[in-house]
Amino acid sequence: MKQVVLPTGESVPALGQGTWMMGEDRARRTDELAALRHGIERGMTLIDTAEMYGDGASEELVGEAIAGRRDSIFLVSKAYPQNASRQRLPLACARSLQRLGTDRIDLYLLHWRGGVPLAETVEAMEALRAEGKIRHWGVSNLDLDDMQELVEVGGESCATDQILYNLTRRGPEFDLLPWLEERKMPVMAYSPVEQGRLLRHQGLAALAAERGATAAQIALAFVLRREGLIAIPKAGSAAHVAENAEALRLELRPEDWAELDRIFPPPTRSAPLDML
Ligand code: NDP
Asked: Which residue positions hold the site described Lowers pKa of active site Tyr (predicted)?
């Protein structure tokens, strides 16, 4: 498994697993647990969840999937912006730990920026880290100006910015990704297959057929090409997980990259960061 090095020197898998919309439907639970466990067996041991997902149901599902193998997992969860204060963050974290059935979160993220000053969130994150409740902290959906402010208010130890990035959302290539790369701050690409919409793209499907791959694999190979990038596709079945895991083995030719640039042109100017 390709690895990405965090600012602390620790390595995590470049291909992880997302869990939004999982754990919400009893009828799908067995398949979802099998999907997550299959991913773990394939080395996709970084699992992303959030207190928001299913109002805690996703964290509970993840807790069940990793029971008995916690030490091999790199667990990522996120707090609502309104919980990112000095008083509320420890309480939100304690609730997440309870649902996840563990004593620590490996990477705890601010889900998006809200009304709490970034300096206060940094302080609250660092306090949780000192206590051992979390091992690293980071942010999500922060654009370049917010990231610059974060670093100015003492957030240099931010471990990642988790952002919307895929073939149809190439805006961050213009300025945010180079800024993160320069600081050796890993980026986490969420919705790497655009929540499934990319898989219905005719041009992508045609290229995939020509390469003997699937559209999902090409879309994942595209984001995973970047150094320091972690992709977290969500898949609700072991078959989809297995297909996605193969993306790391796909070797695209220069003409394939050129074709992708033709179908999904790179940005030519700065634009606000999209979020889902
Ligand atoms: P994704 O781009 O990962 O797409 C998920 C969808 O694609 C699902 O419907 C899934 O279907 C389908 N899919 C995945 N792999 C395949 C495949 N090989 N073949 C066919 N269909 C496939 O979207 P998400 O929005 O879920 O993003 C991934 C993760 O990123 C989230 O789950 C969450 O953890 C995180 N996220 C973070 C956000 C933030 O604000 N920080 C916002 C959005 C997402 P099926 O379930 O049937 O496999």
From this structure: 78
Ligand 1 binding pocket includes 231 (Cβ within 6 Å): no
Whether residue 270 is contained in a domain is answered as: no
Instruction: Specify the CATH number for the domain of residue 199.
Output: 3.20.20.100
Ligand 1 centroid to 116 CA: how many Å? 28
H or E segment to which residue 275 belongs: none
pLDDT tens digits along 83-94: 999 999 999 999
Q: Considering its fold, how many domains does the chain have in total?
A: 1
CA dist 75 and 58 (Å) reads 12
Mean pLDDT calculated for residue range 95-123: 98
Structure tokens at 170: 């190439």
Catalytic site residues? 53
Residue whose pair of structure tokens reads 């969860």 in the numeric block: 77
Whether 272 is in a domain gets the answer: no
User: Is residue 268 situated within a structural domain?
Assistant: no
For ligand 1, say whether the CB of 85 is within 6 Å of any of its atoms: no
